[in-house]
Design brief:
single chain, alpha/beta, four-stranded parallel beta sheet, about 45% helix, about 10% strand
């Protein structure tokens, strides 16, 4: 089905909200890494965190020479285009077979219940390489979150004195 603009929806409001969140995050942290796949959400965050005098490193996953040889570079070329457009280097986070085993060991030693998110091991590897704070452009990110993070962002805007990490959703 063709995507048709809806005049009753103001995309500028969304843009201003995203820019406000980026500014808040950037003002609270000296170092910010952007986990970037090269997709639209993470590339938008990478760009916004690298304008107006801000500088953020861009991290992406590399799955090692043997997997790249067999399956290709995956997201790397897309993240590289984003890093080049932002004028910052692309930091590769190694997730080859050996690194995967180490991350897996770290994961299973700390999780004792089922995990729905199948990307957790990749997130562990990215988190280990993150300098201080990371934004991702996906469900775990304070800017482009799912329902939970949309609520956290909205609540934080309504009550700025409450840190986002202390905002929870009750299912009762």
């Amino acid at each position: 089905e063709e995507v048709v603009p809806r005049p009753e929806l103001d995309v500028d409001v969304v843009g201003m909200a995203i820019e406000a969140e980026v500014s808040q995050i950037a003002n609270r942290h000296e170092r910010i890494d952007v986990w970037c796949s090269g997709g639209i959400d993470s590339s938008t965050l990478a760009y916004l965190h690298n304008i107006n005098g801000r500088h953020s490193d861009i991290l992406t996953l590399s799955y090692g020479a043997s997997l790249i040889e067999e399956f290709g570079e995956g997201e790397i070329p897309h993240a590289r285009v984003t890093a080049d457009a932002c004028g910052v280097p692309l930091r590769m986070v190694d997730m080859d077979e050996i690194a995967f085993l180490g991350v897996h060991q770290s994961f299973v030693s700390g999780h004792h219940s089922p995990a729905i998110d199948t990307c957790l091991l990749a997130k562990y590897a990215l988190a280990n390489a993150t300098s201080q704070v990371a934004v991702t452009g996906e469900g775990g990110d304070p800017v482009f979150g799912g329902v939970k993070n949309d609520f956290v962002t909205f609540y934080h805007h309504q009550h700025p004195s409450v840190p986002p990490g202390q905002i929870t959703i009750s299912t009762r």
